[in-house]
Fold:
Amino acid sequence: MLVHLALSGLLLLQEEGQAYIGWDPRLIVKQMSAVALVVVAILLLMSIWSIGIMIDRAITYSAARKQSRIFVQQVAGALRDGKLDEAISIAERNKKSHIAKVVATGLSEFQSASSQVSDAELIEASKRGLDRAVAIVHAEMKRMLSGLATIGSTAPFVGLFGTVVGIINAFKGIATQKATGLSAVAGGIAEALITTALGLFVAVPAVWAFNYFTNKVEAFDVEMDNSSMELVNYFVTRRSASKK
Structure:
């Protein structure tokens, strides 16, 4: 359909002896209708928004990964020596680490538990605290990703709306069969192609980034779950040792 419109428009322009200037951005902008310009502006805003989310999440996840490596190395010795206060202090120095946040919550729960509490009650209380911490950190890590999903799913339809508007303008130009109509043909075809391409240009990176960052969050969830189980085992072992 678009190819047929393009050929029809170019043939009409040749019959009138007018030169068609191809992809001159200034000429194209002048030929675009107000609706098409609004569509382009919306798509550009969506692109800027998605890029901002990508940068924010990339920095957040990189810091979480880096500080988690440092935290795991430092906290292992403190836990081995039974220095829970030092372990909590190490966690507080690595606040961007997802593992540190979970471990700090678990250690705080363990320390606040009374020595009169049974092992089963202690384990259950620790698990509840760790589960809450994992859920909170998961929500923090997943924050803003819904924006990428929204952009990735809606940008093509915004571009499609601009495409429909451009095709309508092109049909109007063909119907008039005049110089102004011929200009509308070229402008309508340009609107249709530009808005379609721009919609895909915005959507595809957003979808890729959403899938990539979602996999990152899932990997963080696995690490937090493993840390929670190891910490519970540590609590059981430490509680048993304290009774001997």
Notes: The two ends are 83 Å apart (CA to CA).
